[in-house]
Amino acid sequence: MNQFSLNDLLRLFLETRVPALFLIGSLALAILGNAVYELLTGVFGATPQFLIALIAGAVMIFAFVIVGFQRLLRGIKGREQTTVEPDRQAPPHHGLILPVSANPQAADRDIIAWHRRNATLRHCWLLASPSVANSERFRDLKQNLLEQNVTPHVVLLGDVLRADQVYAKVREAISQAVPIGDAWPLIADITGGTKVMTAGILLACLDAGVPVQYWVALRNDHGDPLRSAESCAMQVVVRTP
User: Fold this and answer.
1) 186 has which bridge partners?
2) Is the pTM of the predicted complex or chain greater than 0.85?
């Protein structure tokens, strides 16, 4: 038998599905509000200064409740979106094709660390525009790979807004990986970079039979990934007719 909880009882008085109970609940809340108001004014007096402070306090409490509720919903939604079943997670690969964006909050290092588990990763092809490739962040990323005994391969993209050029460069990277024995199995990430880069990488990998992955993580209000124990690489499965 299902138990009838206190939340279920309160819901009857606060929802409009049962009009009579909703009316009773509304009256009860109104009486409670009036009682609290009378108590406060009886203690502090009904001066204009106190009434202004009371209104300001009520508005602040309401605002905090709304903001807190919104954050709670975002947290729940984000947690639901980062739940990836183990059989859908991409295992560590020896070779990785990784688009690098100019965003300093990108998950590049986390993605590399995912494939570095058990010292699996051996080669990493870094896709970047010339401006990104000349940045200090990119140089640090290359140095970090070298320090972890991973060979970096830089692939410069002339125009990150042209899918055909991205496609050609990714196919070129895959061709470079073919004779390198310890670069296989190879996988490409489609998380970073522009949407055009994502399209070019995906099409090139589909034609070459190379799997792709997406980094699943909680994100902040700006869409930047947040570090979390639940973050993981999810293998993208594309079914073609």
Assistant:
1) 95
2) no
CB contact set of 10 (below 8 Å; sequence gap of 6+): none
In this structure, are residues 170 and 188 in contact, taking their beta carbons and an 8 Å threshold? yes
Which pair of tokens denotes residue 38?
A: 């009378």
Structure tokens at 30: 């109104």
- 2 CB neighbour count, 10 Å cutoff: 5
**Sequence letter at residue 56:** A
The span from the CA of 236 to the CA of 228, in Å, is: 20
* C-alpha separations of 59 from 16, 43, 66, 132 in Å: 25, 21, 11, 47
- The HSE-up count of residue 239 (CA atoms within 13 Å, CB side) is 1
pLDDT in tens, 121-171: 999 999 999 999 999 999 999 999 999 999 999 999 988 888 999 999 999
**Cα angle 213, 81, 209; round to 5:** 15
What per-residue confidence (pLDDT) applies to 29?
65
Question: How many percent of the chain have pLDDT more than 90?
Answer: 49
Contact 233, 213 (CB under 8 A): yes
C-alpha span between 103 and 204 (Å, rounded): 24
Neighbouring-strand partners of residue 234: 89, 214
**Please, what sign has the CA dihedral across residues 51, 55, 60, 61?**
positive
